Amino acid sequence: MYEIRWANNDEWSEAMMMCWNTFLKFEGQTYSEEGVKNFFEFVFDPKIRAAFERGTYQLMIAYDTSVYKVVGAGSIRNRNHLSLLFVDEEYHMQGIGRGILDGLCRYLRD
């Protein structure tokens, strides 16, 4: 079972590593070397993490409560840009991405 919720500060690194690994597996081969480097720099940028910790960069996660693991993540920037949306390979086709998007849309409507 998983829950969709806002990430805690201590879940940031795990979520970003999941995004990075999923990006490499499914998207990275279609990007240039520079594009892959830019994505790496984005997900591991200390300024983005600091913005998250300040509450100015929101990150919603899917958390598998049975194995205590972040299995999906989505974020928005400036309330108008979907910045990230990744789901761990083992959890594809289970509605997790849709659940994260629904949660982000509810947040934006409020």
Distance between the termini: 27 Å
Helix proportion range = 40-55%
Q: Which term fits the overall shape?
A: globular
Approximately what portion of the residues adopt beta-strand conformation? Answer: 25-35%
Q: How many individual β-strands?
A: 4
Please explain how this structure is put together:
The chain is an alpha+beta fold and 110 residues long. It is built from four helices and four strands, in the order βαααβββα. It has helices spanning 12-26, 33-43, 46-54, 96-109, and strands at residues 2-6, 58-64, 69-77, 81-87. A four-stranded antiparallel β-sheet has the order 1-2-3-4, sandwiched between helices. A hairpin with a 3-residue loop joins strand 3 and strand 4. Helix 1 (12-26) runs antiparallel to helix 2 (33-43). The protein is globular. The model has no long low-confidence stretch (mean pLDDT 95).
Considering the chains and any ligands shown, give keywords for the structure.
single chain, 110 residues, alpha+beta, four-stranded antiparallel sheet, 4 helices, 45% helix
Short note summarizing the structure:
The protein has 110 residues and is α+β, with helices and mostly antiparallel strands. It has helices at residues 12-26, 33-43, 46-54, 96-109, and strands at 2-6, 58-64, 69-77, 81-87. It has a four-stranded antiparallel sheet with strand order 1-2-3-4, sandwiched between helices.
Write the layout of secondary structure elements.
Layout lengths: L1 E5 L5 H15 L6 H11 L2 H9 L3 E7 L4 E9 L3 E7 L8 H14 L1
Antiparallel strand pairs: 1-2, 2-3, 3-4
